[in-house]
Amino acid sequence: MNEIVLMSDPKIAAIPVADCGEPLVDVRLQESFAVDSRKADQSGVFAYLREGVLTRLLKAQELLPGGVRLLFVEGYRPPALQRFYFERYADHLRADNPDWSPAQVREAASRYVSPPEIAPHSAGAAVDLTLMSADGRELDMGTRVNASPEESDGACYTDADGVGSEARANRRVLGDALTAAGLVNYPTEWWHWSYGDRYWALQADADSAVYGPREL
């Protein structure tokens, strides 16, 4: 497995943001796009993404093999909710590892939840998604979407060892289509892909991110 740069790495926070002002749009308005309700919130903001991210997802869907579709799980996440998720997970890690320093807790937490100040979801730049068959059946990806490293014994990592051959093949199908459409993966989460955020800028060797945190 290649060395993984975590969201907590200072080089991510050091990347400047030059927000292009692109709007957040509701992916549910796209009839060809399947949206799952497991992360739905009362206001419906979970289904929003930056316009350019949605355009690239639709392109990725066109690149998938026949009979396979993307299944959207979560996009935009308000900054306050992102902070809640991060702090809750950090609290669990701190309780289970009382000898860890604050820096160790932050680093370990960022494997699964991005630090709120740089979170791609809060910029409308990230999407959690999986694959489904034409009849609506989720394909085997080795773990559930949003499985933690502890729950999955590390199988949530995109290139994890020990994942079955079918799941590995499905991850490759997903990754090939999304990469070809211009998105980048966070390697600790096979389901998390983004475009235009700071992590994308690092992977794409861009001078700056084009999407920064937004309130919706």
UniProtKB/TrEMBL annotation:
Catalyzes hydrolysis of the D-alanyl-D-alanine dipeptide. This is D-alanyl-D-alanine dipeptidase. It comes from Streptomyces pratens. It catalyses: D-alanyl-D-alanine + H2O = 2 D-alanine. Binds 1 zinc ion per subunit. The keyword Hydrolase applies. The record marks 77 as: Transition state stabilizer. PANTHER family: D-ALANYL-D-ALANINE DIPEPTIDASE. Pfam families: Peptidase_M15 (PF01427). The lineage of its organism: Bacteria, Bacillati, Actinomycetota, Actinomycetes, Kitasatosporales. Its EC number is 3.4.13.22. Zn(2+) binds at residues 121, 128, 192. Belongs to the peptidase M15D family. CDD domains: D-Ala-D-Ala_dipeptidase_like (cd14843). The active site is at 189 (proton donor/acceptor). Keywords: Cell wall biogenesis/degradation, Dipeptidase, Hydrolase, Metal-binding, Metalloprotease, Protease, Zinc. Its cofactor is Zn(2+). It is an enzyme of class 3 (hydrolase). Gene3D superfamilies: 3.30.1380.10.
